[in-house]
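Blinded run. Sample ID left blank on purpose so nobody reads anything into the name before looking at the predicted structure. Input follows.
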Amino acid sequence: MAWIRTVPLSEANQQLQQAMEAQKSLYPKEYATPVHPTEGGGAQIVESHSLIPDALFHAFATFGVLMSPNLPLSRRQHEMITTVVSVTNRCVY
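Blinded prediction complete.
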């Protein structure tokens, strides 16, 4: 498995902390607890983007916005789409 240097939340500068909190605020409340948390309690997949805070925000905010309850799809439909995409991409998270 490849190793990616990450910045744990405990060592994050203000820009990284803001990016993490901003993207997290867009997600449904059920996503608050990571499935595979890091030692600091964050999500591994999010921390893998921690070296570039702007990229972290944009990559994960996109998904948060796509899960918005203000869109015409139901939450069930959103979850079905994300599940199919994850299976197709062989994602485990």
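Unblinding after everyone has recorded impressions. The first helix runs from residue 14 to 24.
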